[in-house]
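Limitations

Structures in this collection are predictions, not experimental determinations, and the ligand pose is part of the prediction. Treat each record accordingly. The example that follows, with zinc ion as the small molecule, is included so readers can see exactly what is and is not provided: the inputs are given verbatim, and the output is the predicted complex.
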Amino acid sequence: MTFDPPVSCPVCEEVLELDRDLEEHLVGKHTQREVVRYVVSREERAEIGSVGESAAPN
Ligand SMILES: [Zn+2]
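Predicted complex:
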């Protein structure tokens, strides 16, 4: 028997039930627009992060 770590939704950070998969959650709980918006904002953040991260105070 394998143990799968809990999967959390990258959009709302809700931890999914073990018998649910992320795709089902995204389709059921989020609109396509929400998912797209998440992907876009993550990419924007990645671009900013590559510049700004080294400037973060320690
Ligand atoms: Zn979600």
